[in-house]
Amino acid sequence: MGRAFEFRKGRKMKRWSAMAKAFTRIGKDIVMAVKEGGPNPEANSRLRAVIQNAKAANMPKDNVERAIKKATDKDTANYKEVLFEGYAPHGIALLIETATDNNNRTVANVRSYFNKCNGTMGTQGSVEFMFDHTCNFRIPKGEIDPEELELELIDFGAEEVFEDEDGILIYAPFGSFGTIQKELENRKMEILSSGFERIPQITKKLTEAEMADVEKLIEKMEEDDDVMNVYHTMEEN
C-alpha cells in the first residue's frame, strides 16, 4: 500500500466526527459551489460532489435544499478559501485550510492559536511544499476489483486505489478531480463521497509529551468555525 493508504489509516478525522461540525462545513461548501457554478447540480460538478458528501454525512435533504436556496440569495456572504501555514512545537509543519467571510477575523484567530501554543505562523509557501495536494473518491465495493480499477483509471490520473471497511477509495493529484469524477459518472459508478486532502511527504516521530503539545494547538485550530481542515507532519500511531 502507498502513502495515501497509510495517511487514511492513521489520520484521526476529529472534525468530521462531530455531526454539527460536518454540517457547518458542508453548508459552506454548498455556498461556495453555488456562488461559483449556480444552483443546478446537473450543470455544477462541484455542487454534485458536495451533495454526495452531504448524503455520506447523513445531512437531511431538507437542510441541503435550504442551503442551496440560501446560497442563491445575493445578500448571502460568500466564503473565501484561505490557506495558513506554520509550525507547531517540536518542528511539526501545519497547513490550515479555512473558509471565511471575514479574513481579518480568521487571520487574527489563527495567529493567536499559534502564539498561545508556542507555535510559529509562517509565510505563504513556507510549508505547503511539504504536502501533496490530492483528491479522493469513495465508491461502493460491489464486485469491483481495486487492482483492476486502478489499472483502468491510471490514464485518468489515479495513483492509488484500495479497499477499506466502507468501500473503495481512489486517490489522485488535485488537478485530476474533474477528470475522474466525469469518468466515474460515465461508468455509472455511484460516488459515495469525494474530497481533497493534503498528504505529508515525510513525517516526524515525537514522544507522547511532545505529541500532546502539538495536539493542543491542532485542537484549538479545529474548534474554530472558520477552520475546515488541519494537516500536519507528525507521525500518528
UniProtKB/TrEMBL annotation:
Keywords from the named record: Cytoplasm, DNA-binding, Transcription, Transcription regulation
Chain ranges of the TACO1/YebC-like second and third domain: 79-234
Species this chain originates from: Flavobacterium myungsuense
Chief location: cytoplasm
Family to which the UniProt record says this protein belongs: Belongs to the TACO1 family.
Location in the cell: Cytoplasm
Every TACO1/YebC-like N-terminal domain range: 4-73
Protein name: Probable transcriptional regulatory protein ACFQ0S_08925
GO molecular-function term, one example from the UniProt record: DNA binding
Record has Transcription regulation as a keyword: yes
Gene3D superfamilies: 1.10.10.200, 3.30.70.980
Stored HAMAP family: Transcrip_reg_TACO1 (MF_00693)
